[in-house]
Design brief:
The protein has 199 residues and is mainly β. It has one domain (25-94, 107-180). The protein contains no helices and 12 strands. A hairpin with a 2-residue loop joins strand 7 and strand 8.
């Protein structure tokens, strides 16, 4: 199959990478509501932005695409938040099977108002350390198929997501829902020895 051609995600799922969440206002937006390479006119995508340590917010963004594969500029549409359906059964077990992690100041699910990059965003809360399922559905419950289009790697902590990769270099997966979960790991840092302190 040529690079960039759509692949249906198998029943067991597929890892599609990390979500924005470590830096305030950082936006991840690589999940689209249509095939970006064949769609013209109004196109939409799911955005997820970090609004504080431990909490992200979901949103629908729109852009006009006068040429397939070249949408922009993107704007958040708060009136389309009803399209996002988030199931949050609670905190994810971390380390101990069948035991939820005890986290201070756990965020209750539901919608919230947030300021993201100087814009008011109203959308579902996506707390970290929860196993969340996000779906996009019409008001009558009809599911909207989702498209993951691979973007360039992030090289900084700026709010805007990296650009989408050209079709020939990217990946395109088709699926019905996104599962958010937490991957906890230790990290390491190398540094020189501190200089001796003077008297």
């Amino acid at each position: 199959m040529p690079p960039g051609d759509p692949q249906v995600v198998p029943r067991g799922g597929r890892f599609i990478g990390s979500s924005a969440g470590a830096f305030l206002d950082q936006l991840a937006a690589d999940i689209y509501l249509q095939n970006i390479w064949t769609s013209q006119g109004r196109v939409r995508r799911v955005g997820v932005a970090c609004v504080g340590w431990g909490l992200s917010v979901g949103m629908i963004q729109e852009a006009d695409s006068h040429q397939a594969g070249r949408p922009g500029p993107w704007q958040t549409n708060n009136h389309l938040r009803h399209l996002l359906r988030v199931d949050d059964p609670g905190q994810q077990a971390v380390g101990v099977p069948d035991q939820p992690a005890v986290l201070p100041n756990a965020t209750p699910p539901g919608e919230g108002f947030f300021v993201v990059n100087n814009n008011i965003v109203r959308g579902p809360k996506l707390p970290w350390h929860h196993r969340l399922t996000l779906r996009v559905q019409l008001r009558n419950g009809t599911p909207i198929q989702l498209h993951y289009h691979k973007h360039a790697p992030r090289k900084d902590h700026k709010p805007d997501p990296p650009k989408i990769l050209p079709k020939a270099l990217g990946k395109h997966y088709i699926f019905d829902e996104v599962i958010f979960s937490t991957q906890i790991q230790n990290c390491r840092r190398a540094k020189p020895e501190d200089p001796p302190q003077g008297n």
